[in-house]
Amino acid sequence: MSNSPARKRHPSPRLSSASPRLLYGAELRYYREAKGWSQARLAELLYVTPSFVANLETGRRLLHPDLAPRLDELLETNGFFVRHIEAGRSGPGPEVLLDIADQEQHAVTIRDWDLHFIPGLLQTDLYSAAFRRAHGPARDLPEQHRRWTTRTAHRPLLRTRSSPAYWAVIHESALRRPLGGPKTMAAQLDALAEFMRQGRAAVHVLPYTASVVHGLDSALRITETEGEYPIAHIVTGEAVKATADPATVSLARMTHDLLLNTALPHADSLSLIDGLRLEYDRQIVDTTAHAQTRPA
């Protein structure tokens, strides 16, 4: 047995109200550092990647049950990780729920619904810029919804072979709202139609004639990641809720399914988008003609 003094713990103030999974990860980091190992060294012994260990320590990844006894063996914890496996496999805390960009990168499926705007993963740069100008932090749009909706992925998430399966239901009003003007909207609808024709996104339009699900008057996203709890982001009015609660996520799935079944089929949705694209083209021509006939 080593005669070296026990390493003192220095708990972080932010852990006092942390999720059980984050506390579990903090213990993993404590025991790893007590051994004098780097994340890379522990990853090598576990046959995983260093980033996987890092995500376990920050509560961003669900612990597989088979890893718990191996951690106890390697880190000599007297069975700590097996005893507290429920904490390691508990739902993600706020530190995970709020990181939408990270969820997108690891997603297997993503389901979007938006009443007012084109969802972020489908936005063009011009549309996203127009959105930011119209709905910056000073406006009353929920901050989390703004971050999610305006995000344009610098890496083309829906254009890679490993892209998640993606379904989006968009209300017709979002397509008719001339955000950024006719040129911006024409380019946005072009991009939307391209996604649909290439089969990279299943986009359906909910027409004005259809009723919106009661209580869901803004937006919804459900993200599923392999080996992780599905997460729902629900925006109603000025309130936004991010949750991994199974009952809430199940209700969100049912809501999205209802919207999908109420929306127009693929071909009809594409036809409507193409028709609106022509309307914006006509507006561009009219605006140009008007400008040319205006007296100097």
UniProtKB/TrEMBL annotation:
**InterPro entries of this UniProt entry?**
Cro/C1-type_HTH, DUF5753, Lambda_DNA-bd_dom_sf
Name one matching Pfam family.
Answer: HTH_31
> Could you tell me which Gene3D superfamilies the record lists for this protein?
lambda repressor-like DNA-binding domains
Q: Which PROSITE patterns does this UniProt record tie to the protein?
A: HTH_CROC1 (PS50943)
Which is one GO molecular function term here?
Answer: DNA binding
Which SUPFAM superfamilies did the record assign?
lambda repressor-like DNA-binding domains
Residue span(s) of domain HTH cro/C1-type: 28-80
Q: What is this protein called?
A: Helix-turn-helix domain-containing protein
Q: Which organism is it from?
A: Actinacidiphila guanduensis
